[in-house]
Amino acid sequence: MTDKRLDKLVRAFAKGDESAFDALYEATSADVYYTILMVLKDPSLSEDIMQDTYMKMIESLPKYRPQGKFRAWIKTIAKRLALNAYHERKKESPHDDDEGPLSLLAQEDGSEKRSELEELMRTLDEEEKEIVIRHAVLGEKHKDIAEALARPLGTVLWKYRNALGKMRRKGGAPDEE
User: Fold this and answer.
1) Domain 109-177 adopts which CATH fold?
2) What confidence category does residue 112 fall into, taking pLDDT thresholds of 50, 70 and 90?
3) Residue 175 gets which letter from DSSP?
4) Quick check: pTM over 0.70?
5) Angle at the Cα of 56 from the Cα atoms of 97 and 83, rounded to 5 degrees
6) Between the CA atoms of 83, 89, 90 and 91, what dihedral angle is there, to the nearest 10 degrees?
7) Model confidence over 49-87: pLDDT tens digits?
8) Are 68 and 111 contacting, i.e. CB atoms less than 8 angstroms apart?
9) CATH of 1-94, one of 1.20.1250.20, 1.10.10.60, 1.10.1740.10, 3.40.109.10
């Protein structure tokens, strides 16, 4: 479905057309689900977060400005909710190292490597972590990250390079693309 068509559906739903929500859901649900699943690696929890994503979308709809970016906007909501769930889950079970975005970066099964990577990520501020995870783990383009964070592209690029530099100085970094 085209971005223009999605924006028409958003406007229709905002005006009370319930069938527009069904069409929006149908057009975006696969993207939303797989975005969440990439972070959580848990199909059941991903389905729960998917429902939360659409609830948050409905709640935040008055803030959305149709510009042909609905798919990116809802995927951003999904990623943030998934990352929040990942962090909550990590607090509840601190010994579960096999799940979450940082394990995707490690590419080795050793818990020593994972803890080393987690230590490197602790050297970053929250925005740098989000940029590194979005780019290196989720494979997002810097331009899309900039739009999602409402930051200039140059700032996102600088923060990404700066984060990699911090990680290198601390002891290593993920490979750049």
Assistant:
1) Arc Repressor Mutant, subunit A (1.10.10)
2) low
3) P
4) no
5) 15
6) 120
7) 999 999 999 999 888 887 778 899 999 999 999 999 998
8) no
9) 1.10.1740.10
